[in-house]
Amino acid sequence: MKTMQCRVIRVTPRGRGAVATLFLAGRDAFAILESCLDFPQQDRRIAAQDHFENSAPVFAYFQLADAREEIVLDLRRHNLIALHCHGGDAVVNAIEAALVARGAVVRAWQDWLLETREPEFSPLHKPFDLIQREALQLLPLAETELTAKLLLAQYHGALSRRIEQMMRLLESASSGTSSGNAVQEATDILDSLLQSYESGKHLTTPFRVGLIGQVNAGKSSLMNALLGFNRSITSQVAGTTRDAVSAKTVISGWPVMLIDTAGIRETSNPVEREGIARMQTVMADSDLLLLVTDAVVQQTVDHLPDIPGIPKKVPILHVVNKIDLVAPQALLRFKDHPDYVPVSALTGIGLEQLCRAILSKLHNVRDTTTFQTSTSQTALVFTERQYSYLSSLLGH
């Protein structure tokens, strides 16, 4: 018996929708599909075969066990057919099951996109390189307009062009046809690409920013102010926050997960002690820590609070909160501190400055406006595979 080769790929999200789309890919795609079809008129079977030579849609019925579903077919090629049907999961699942019963295999679109060697979406489209495929695979997971634009930039070749430029410099250096600076220029490109991974890996995964500090420093109020709504409970009573409370927000187009933690203090309360213990986990998993202090307290204290267990690899911003309660002169002592940001969670003073400082720390750059102003040209390493490949070049 001949082995059928047909993969069924659902390319629209699961869940209720007006229309769902399936791709049928493989040598036997049309043969498997044809056995499930019925046409409004008998001569439409011939029209379906002829459609491979033209661009008109084909309307048909898909025969299910006890019903038939109206569908529209786009017969792009014999080995790549788009099937459009009603968007409910029940209908799509029934069509998938009927095709599988006839020899097809269900594949996730992400896996198919990475493994197929065919031009995917049009016979006229040139084959995708691996970076393009990875960008398309991750694009639906982008949480903001900016990160989607940056992924589209990689799909359109921003990263590939930068890597090609680096490789041309290395090749010209090895052949002796380049200037003496070619190797250094290539090394600089490689270093910048490897550094870009710290930003690129967050195109689909939010940065994690933990708020730490002593009790009553205003961590919960600051988190609420950054979010724009009351996510954390605030109170004058010390120890109100006893567990890590998290919520997502967007800062200048980048997704950020804020995590409010229990305040540090000596306590015999087992619930508070557990909250403080969980803070250690938050610190270890954070991309940035905001050490929040009370401006009223800090004006009489010469040192920052001792927070045990802060990982050395995690950058820290010192946020002096409640500056609306102290005289401006009290803040002069911090003016030369590079990582000091004065704010008032109550009035909003300093929040824009804090957001800029947060992004600068997260991206490890001074100016983050490049992401907004030249997204189409910004090259970012955004997968572990890319990072590992580029890292391996360091030894050559």
Outline the fold blueprint:
Layout: E1 7-10, E2 19-25, H1 29-34, E3 37-38, H2 44-50, E4 58-63, E5 68-77, E6 80-86, H3 89-101, E7 105-108, H4 109-115, H5 130-138, H6 145-155, H7 158-175, H8 182-200, E8 207-212, H9 219-227, E9 245-251, E10 254-260, H10 270-285, E11 288-294, H11 295-298, E12 316-321, E13 340-342, H12 351-363, H13 369-373, H14 384-392
Parallel strand pairs: 1-7, 8-10, 8-11, 11-12, 12-13
Antiparallel strand pairs: 1-2, 2-6, 3-4, 4-5, 5-6, 9-10
Helix pairs in contact: 4-5, 5-6, 7-8, 8-14
Q: Your description of this structure?
A:
The chain has 396 residues and is α/β, with parallel strands linked by helices. The protein folds into 3 domains: 7-127, Probable tRNA modification gtpase trme, domain 1 (Gyrase A, domain 2), CATH 3.30.1360.120; 138-201 and 380-395; 207-369, P-loop containing nucleotide triphosphate hydrolases (Rossmann fold), CATH 3.40.50. It is 37% helix and 19% strand. It has helices at 29-34, 44-50, 89-101, 109-115, 130-138, 145-155, 158-175, 182-200, 219-227, 270-285, 295-298, 351-363, 369-373, 384-392, and strands spanning 7-10, 19-25, 37-38, 58-63, 68-77, 80-86, 105-108, 207-212, 245-251, 254-260, 288-294, 316-321, 340-342. The strands form 2 sheets. Strands 3-4-5-6-2-1-7 form a 7-stranded mixed beta sheet. A 6-stranded mixed beta sheet has the order 9-10-8-11-12-13, sandwiched between helices. Helix 4 (109-115) runs antiparallel to helix 5 (130-138), helix 5 (130-138) runs antiparallel to helix 6 (145-155) and helix 8 packs antiparallel against helix 14 (384-392). The longest helix is centred in the middle third of the chain and has 19 residues, at 182-200. Residues 119-124 and 232-242 have low confidence and may be disordered.
